[in-house]
């Protein structure tokens, strides 16, 4: 089937802070290599125009085959590259790829504002992924509690230090405490007999900027976790290879997140992980969550990343499998469907169809 050129815009925190191992950079590089038009938009770059609707000051990519992500990112971040005003109604897809946790202290207004612009953009012909109306709820870890209890650890969410202690006492004195809003393993503490003496200070540090989420400790987590990518509510698989990483700690630090210095290796999901994906899939589909990352330890899902599910570049480099190409294939398919149905499909339907 002949592929028509599509116009694909990515929303990131800031083009200047993108890194060459980010999934967004890999997806953008693969898209321009196919001849697609690509733009990157920062959270603070949106414009509502009284005539043109939702616009943005965007960094436009030239269409070319770049040798690697490092060279491509250098092209995007070149000092001479100026931003260009674009009208989002002219673009086929807007992919929301910003991390709200990075904005908590300096630009707390930015994530919510960009979601409002994205919601308005989704009222037209532009396909916005993940669906921004449901993403407004899903960006907060309370969204996690909407999934069946069988797939998630027991949890309490509170700002009361005594409630934290009560939960830990009820779970053998061991648990995990972290900010309700956060990512990349930042501010995550394991509480056990050794660290219990510092519980007051840890709790105070976590609740200083909001709610704390306290979860039961999962013994399987000591061996790391699985990051499994889902697409359209199902595990992403190319031929016989799943987009699934085993992430593990390489130091005494318990965090296995790559951004926290953890190691990675490809690993096929076991039956427990595939069962979790099957259980959470219907809600992901119903909420228009096109691209997500499930973080799984044993038979429980520890977290769900709906903002910037990453790891694709690591998966491709380790396996040689073109997962990002499969995602671009799927985006091209969605644009064809949008054009064929003449706008009669809703954004949520297009997000997961």
Automatic annotation (TrEMBL):
Residues 141-332 form the ATP-grasp domain. This is Glutathione synthase. Keywords: ATP-binding, Nucleotide-binding. It comes from the Bacteria. Gene3D superfamilies: 3.40.50.20, ATP-grasp fold, A domain, ATP-grasp fold, B domain. The keyword Nucleotide-binding applies.
